Amino acid sequence: MILAAAVALTSTAGAAPQGKQLVELESNITWAAVDNAWKNIRPRWVEATGACDDPACVAKQLLELEGHVQWKAVEAGWTKRRSGWVNDCKAASTEVEVAKLLLEFEENVRWQAVEPAWKARRDAWVARVKGG
Length: 132
What we know:
132 residues, 7 helices, single chain
């Protein structure tokens, strides 16, 4: 029983921080970078993302956020990678996979689409997402 509880805690321990990391990224994306629907969706999304208890949940929330980010807010090359990235998100089941997808999305969000303070916070955030 104790071993099973320890395994359960270990398997979900990283998911909640990934949800928080995703919320942190989203909170630094400007309102101008997202569509109008996001204002109404965001409160529920933040709550659901913070409550994610597994990597697949975080990946699903990442997909939802990306779907509301406008094309002008992402690098031009995202149009070529997006379809494969979406499929990768749908298949993601580990923290390592989700971390890679989260970092890839963030790398494709243009500087103009994030709060100015993000530039100073970004390196520490990337290190946390990578597990450092």
